[in-house]
Amino acid sequence: MYITFPKETMFILAFVLFLPCVKCADCRKVPFNVGNDKIIVSKDVTAGPFQLKSTVECATMCTGDASCCTASYDNTTKQCFLSSLCNPETVYSYNGKYIQNYITAAKDPCTVKPAKPVDCADIVTNCGSGIYDIYPSTTYPITVYCDMTGYNWTVIQRRVDGVVNFNRTWADYKTGFGNLAENFWLGNDYIHTIVNSRSFMIRFDLEDWYGNVRYAEYETFRIGDESSNYILTLDDYDGNAGDITGDSGTGEIDGQPFSTADRDSANYVNFLGQSCADQNGGAWWYNKCGLANLNGYYYNYPTGSLTFNAIYWQPFKGRQSLKSVSMKIRFENDK
C-alpha cells in the first residue's frame, strides 16, 4: 500500500513512570501508554496548552489528574494538552505523542470486536474517530479512517484543502494516496475489497464556501475490480444535495467505469478534444463528464458556475467549487 502516512497503531509503547517524591511513602508507580504520530483534536481538549519539557512530563501531569484520561504532546512546540475523554478524536501529527492513562482508561476501554473487524461498523461505539486497521480480506489488513459520528463510517475520500494534488495517474488511484487524517483517496483496490465483503451504502458530505452543508446517500454502492475498470454501481438516492445518478441526457453515472487522465474509460471528448478526466482535472466515474466530480482541482475560493475543473456537485452549487467534501461507506444493515 502506497498511501503516504505512517502506519498507526492504537498504542505502540508501554511505560512505567516513577513520579518524583520527597518521602518514600509518597512514591508510586503510574502506568501509561504512548502512541506515536498523532494528537488530540482541539474540540476534544479539556485543558491546556501547558509548556512542558517532555512527553514524560505531560504524562505525569495527566496521570496526576483524576479527570484526565488522555493527553497529547507536541515535540516541536513543547505543548501538552489534556482531555477527560478516554477515546477522543485524533489526527496525524509528525511530532505528536498520544498518551493514555491506564487507570482512568480502564473505566472506559475502547474495544474492537471482533479482533479483526471487517469494517468500521465492527468497532464498538465508545471508540473515537481515528485511524484503524480493518480486515475485509483474510490475507491482509487495510488501514482506514473511521468516522464514529452517528454511524460508524469507513471514509474512502476526503478534501479539506489543496495540499494534495488529485489529478493523478491510474496507478495512484489504484493504490491510494494522501494523508488519512486530511486529504486522501483510499485506493480503488482497497475500496473494491471492502465493498465486496458486504452490501454497502455510501454518503457524500458537501460544504460550500458560505457555510452551507448538504449530503447525499445511496443505499447501494459497489465498484468492480480493476479488470472491469472499477465499474460503479450507485442507486437509491436520499438526501438534500441532489441526485447525481443522471439520465441519458446528463450522463448516467450508474454502471460507468473509472477514468483518469492517463487511462480514459469514458470514450467521450469535448469540443477541444479533451477527455472528461482532462477537462475536469481529476479522476471519476464519467459519462458525458457527469453531474459531479469530487476529485477536481481545489480552489481556495468560490469559483464561478462555469468552472469545469473544480470540485463540484451540480445539483447543489452548479460548477461552483466546494470548500470540503468527503465520501464514506458503511454496512447497509448497520442502522
Automatic annotation (TrEMBL):
SUPFAM superfamilies (alphabetical): Fibrinogen C-terminal domain-like (SSF56496)
Apple domain span: 27-103
Keyword Iron-sulfur belongs to the record: no
Keyword Iron-sulfur: no
Keyword set, alphabetical order: Coiled coil, Disulfide bond, Glycoprotein, Secreted, Signal
Signal peptide limits: 1-24
Source superkingdom: Eukaryota
GO CC field: fibrinogen complex
A Pfam family this chain is assigned to: Fibrinogen_C
Subcellular location as annotated: Secreted
Residues of the Fibrinogen C-terminal domain: 111-333
GO biological process: positive regulation of heterotypic cell-cell adhesion
Record-level Gene Ontology MF annotations: extracellular matrix structural constituent; protein-macromolecule adaptor activity
PANTHER family in the cross-refs: FIBRINOGEN ALPHA CHAIN
Protein name: Fibrinogen C-terminal domain-containing protein
Organism name: Mytilus edulis
